[in-house]
Amino acid sequence: MNMKYQHLKPDQINQLITNGCTCSDWGKIRVSEGFSANHVQHTDFSGEITIGDNQGTVEFYGGVKKPCGIYNSSIHNCTIGNHVYINHVTNYIANYDIEDHVIIENLELCAMEGESCFGNGFQVEVLDETGGRKIMIYDYLSAHLAYIMAFYKHRSCAIEMLEKMIIEYSEGVKSSRGIIGRHSKLQNCRQIRNVRFGPYTQANGVNRLENGSVNGNQHAPVILGTGITAQNFIFSSGSEISDGTIIANCFIGQGCILSKQYSAENSLFFANCQGFHGEACAVFAGPYTVTHHKSTLLIAGMFSFCNAGSGSNQSNHMYKLGPIHHGVVERGSKTTSDSYLLWPAKIGAYTLVMGRHYKNIDTSDLPFSYLIENKDDSWLAPAVNLQSVGTIRDVMKWPRRDRRKDPKKQDCINFNLLSPFTIQKMLNGLEILKNLKQVSGETTDTYAYHSTLIKRHSLERGIDLYSKAMYKFIGNSIISRLDKCGVESFSEIMECLKPRNDIGSGNWSDLAGLIAPQTEVRRILNSIENSTFVSLEEIENEFRLLHQNYYDYEWVWAAGLLKDITGKAVEELNIKDLIDLIGKWQESVVEIDNLLYKDAQKEFRLDAMTGFGMDGNKATQKLDFEKVRGNFEDNDFVKEILDHIERKTALGKRIINRLENIEKLQIQSTN
């Protein structure tokens, strides 16, 4: 606070006594020059107390203004900043540093006892309820570091080093004094014990908080609402927890919302997760994991960009060795109402799970699929989600729904639908489907794969869609590279397409939102083990660099795919090869967009109008439907599909024309 404080003057003490204040030792109270005894009434003081400038007013909801000061309270061993308003503390505030412009009103208890790390260093028993995958949390934990700590237990040396760093950080924030950050508001709250509040926190009607950190700031305050209970927690900037939510042993990431009686235990929620009504237990919720329904239970699973439908459920033990099993639902997947999965299982990226599945399933190499129950069997329709408007709509909406306002983002999020991570899965899927077809025969009607069944027409459609997506990805990579370089000659083309290094080759991983080469993940782990990285900030910076360099690394991987497709290294390609590839890209993009267009049409069929035009005929039904939903041609998403087809067609033609002109100049120069 950088202010000079002095002991109370006799006239100030007399005024405080006249105002109904008491103190066991007035000599332990120090005040600033701006202190007014008139603004302290009916308050009991004990321990060491400092009070800043308490003049002026504070403004409340509805434009109501009240004078700063301390009223009807009990304060023990606290520092109180400038322009603070405290009123009606029914029990006491003890061992807290209350910063400038704080409002505290109708509070039962806010106290520190002993030393606390405020949730830092607490071990969350995520995924495996028996504690086998415990993750130690801290204020700035990213989804990517948590991913490594959960799934790389076999790198025990690296995990021990990471835990040592987190322990050191936790010891650095340990204190016997709590903090209520500047401009915070704590109103109508009950029990608060060993909690540190960052600036601009808004807490109204909180039931109980114990051993945690509330890490808001001016850009992204944390909002805590009515009836919530939380123990052993860290709330990141921009998060909102309200309406009777119950939290125990959890990390809540930036921009998350947990509300409407949601309950969560031993779980991690990263950027922009939402939980309403339901329950989470031992869950690793990567970015954009969403559940809105009262009957939905997420348990012992890793989810990412996931939407869990009502009644979604999973089983993590068979009553033998306890709840030791866990499952992985890769990015972009959805579960429909009343879906069920038996752990252990691994569900491929962007998969729709429908029905109840009683076998241990692994569809990780068949992404963009439908997993459907029929008569207790699990049927798989590979790649069909590539032609679903729902998938594209999700990918488009996620960036728009980023609630993070904090300039420092803890999670690095890659929103790309097609990436080395998903394309590699599709390449594996292509091989799997072709082998199934070859081994079982082309006339076979049903194929068996990893506890699932695949119809012949679904298998053939999967091969076709995966192939189109592969050419779409490789064409996107080539065109974006050439468009960015603005090449005018063949030598410039070769220079533009030449990879700058070999980082990016090999397999890739999705580290809960961050898509990165596995070689770089191993490099980071090696650097942790040999003490090249000695701080958490260094490691988090490495994740940010991986995210920033994604497109350079992606091109290295794409160049390797180009060689597999054409049989030529990038430097061996000629203009005809590039024109052929762009032609296939253009064809794939348009065909997939046309499939999306047809899928969107289903939402405007006559059977979709059921329930419209309640008291009229078919004409009234159609008119009512259009007034509510609009017509097909004017739908924003439909317009975007048509515009996308037009734009990509024009882009392909422009690049091909440029390449053909370069080819003509090349021929002329040789003649």
Question: Can you tell me about this structure?
Answer:
This protein is an alpha/beta fold and about 675 residues long. Among the domains are: about 1-110, no CATH class; about 575-670. It contains 13 helices and 44 strands. α6 crosses α7 (about 490-495) and α6 (about 455-485) crosses α11. The longest helix is centred in the C-terminal third of the chain and has 35 residues, at about 635-670. The termini are far apart.
List keywords for this structure.
44 strands; 671 residues; elongated; 27-stranded mixed beta sheet; 6-stranded mixed beta sheet; alpha/beta
How would you summarize what this structure contains?
The protein is α/β, with parallel strands linked by helices. Among the domains are: 1-111, no CATH class; 575-670. Helix content is 33%, strand content 26%.
The total count of helices amounts to 13
User: What's the β-strand tally?
Assistant: 44
- Based on CA atoms alone, the radius of gyration comes out at 30 Å
Q: What shape does the CA trace take?
A: elongated
End-to-end Cα distance, whole Å, is: 80 Å
Question: Which regions contain 5 or more consecutive residues with pLDDT less than 50?
Answer: none
Classify the secondary structure makeup into a structural class. Answer: alpha/beta
The portion of residues assigned to helices is 25-40%
**Major β-sheet annotation:** 27 strands, mixed
User: Could you report the average pLDDT, rounded to the nearest whole number?
Assistant: 90
Strand content: 25-35%
Report the oligomer.
Answer: single chain
